[in-house]
Amino acid sequence: MNTDVRRRSALVVGGTGIAGRALCRELVANGWPTTSLSRRKSAAPDGVTTLRADLTDPRSVEQALAGTAPTHVFITAWSRRPTEAENITVNAAMVRNVLDAAGRAGTLRHVALVTGLKHYLGPFEAYGTGATRDTPFHENEPRLDAPNFYYAQEDELWAAAERLGFAWSVHRSHTIIGYAVGNAMNMGQTLAAQAALCRAEGTPFVFPGNEVQWNGITDMTDAGLLARQMIWAATTENLPSQAYNAANGDVFRWRWMWPRIAELLGVEPEGYADRARPLEQQTAGKEDLWRRLAGREGLVEADLSRVASWWHTDSDLSRPVECFTDMSRSRGAGFTDYADTLASFAALFDTLRSEKVIPA
């Protein structure tokens, strides 16, 4: 690995999100000059220069990046829209706008793009239905015959790489465990908020998903591990430009994990029983309860919608197929990092307590 970082500079697109925050911390710890570009105003990790832009507006992105000359761009942001057609239009444009603006200086060496397992499962509109790939998922499997904004993002990345001459990597993460208030997809923080509401009401911690997820094999992705894989791919010499699955390396069943998470969060677990019990139904009308809880406990965020993403956790835990990945490609190329998923949850919950996102 090339260890000379003096002429490297990183641009993290979405640096205030669940993947971007962890990546910014990792880059700064390794001595990289690091800039975060985000559409919303939020504090970035220490040592990071922050820029703000509407990523869907090419002029806004161009103005924000004027005068910058990044050598490495890490794209961790996306924008959720009502339909997959809209997701494709908006998220492809975000990648295109960033790379058009960041490439003007002629300094780009590598661009890393975070996508996910919807590459194998299909879009949210048809999540895990119809034709899907068999588990474990492998990077060399052909695309599904369905519209998918991840495919559109990859196409924009490849077109820019051909035009500008940089290397690239795509990182297909599973559900990410990490810290970011206001993030659209954050299962660990969502489960912590669910448990806090259960403790406040004295009710059990009910598994929201279906029988397939309760009994099937799955895996997850620690945000720090994802960050390290992205930096590894961006800086290891002679790696081909290609996609890498990004998961912790262990697998589990929710029927094993659920009571252990409940113990970490101080609640009584209740597993799958006859039917799914989605969080959007379990937590309906609990916004005022959270607001009172936040006031009593001195929490930093009284808006429950910025702490928990019920819809996303419900989507993940209601898939009709088991879901885990093969990590042979990156392991064979030299990335052998590993994270224990239960330990990742425990570390996140400790962070959420110390940052006053959930009650102690």
Quick summary:
The chain is α/β, with parallel strands linked by helices and 360 residues long. The protein has helices at residues 18-29, 58-65, 84-102, 118-121, 149-164, 187-201, 211-215, 223-235, 254-265, 279-282, 287-297, 310-316, 328-333, 341-354, and strands spanning 10-13, 34-38, 48-52, 72-75, 110-116, 167-173, 176-177, 205-206, 217-218, 221-222, 242-246, 252-253, 269-270.
Your description of this structure?
The protein is of the alpha/beta class and 360 residues long. The protein is 41% helix and 14% strand. It has a seven-stranded parallel β-sheet, with helices on both faces. Strands 7-10 form a two-stranded parallel ribbon. A two-stranded parallel ribbon has the order 8-13. Helix 1 (18-29) crosses helix 8 (223-235). The mean pLDDT is 94. Residues 71-359 form the PRISE-like Rossmann-fold domain. It comes from Streptomyces kunmingensis.
**Order of strands across the main sheet:** 3-2-1-4-5-6-11
* Rg (CA only): 20 Å
Instruction: Identify the overall geometry.
Output: globular
Secondary structural class = alpha/beta
Percentage of residues assigned to helices: 40-55%
Largest sheet composition = 7 strands, parallel
Kindly report how far apart the N and C termini lie.
42 Å
Q: What are the segments in which pLDDT stays under 50 over at least 5 consecutive residues?
A: none
Domain PRISE-like Rossmann-fold: 71-359
Protein name: SDR family oxidoreductase
Pfam family, one: PRISE
Organism: Streptomyces kunmingensis
